[in-house]
Amino acid sequence: MWEYKIIDSNKAEKGGFLSGRTIEQAEAYLNELGAQGWEIIDLDFNMDPTMPSGATHFHGVAKRAK
Fold it and tell me: Domain limits of the chain?
């Protein structure tokens, strides 16, 4: 049996888990999810070309054994 988690940085609170964060911060967050047993099964990134730091937003689905 699986449980699922919707990941959507656009719906996070201001300063939330990825709103306006760098690619490195996004990787750190995804690695944290992996450490909790979550496996990303779908992920779509949207880069913000106006941000010199490469800010990114994404949404997707993760699953893990329940």
Answer: 2-65
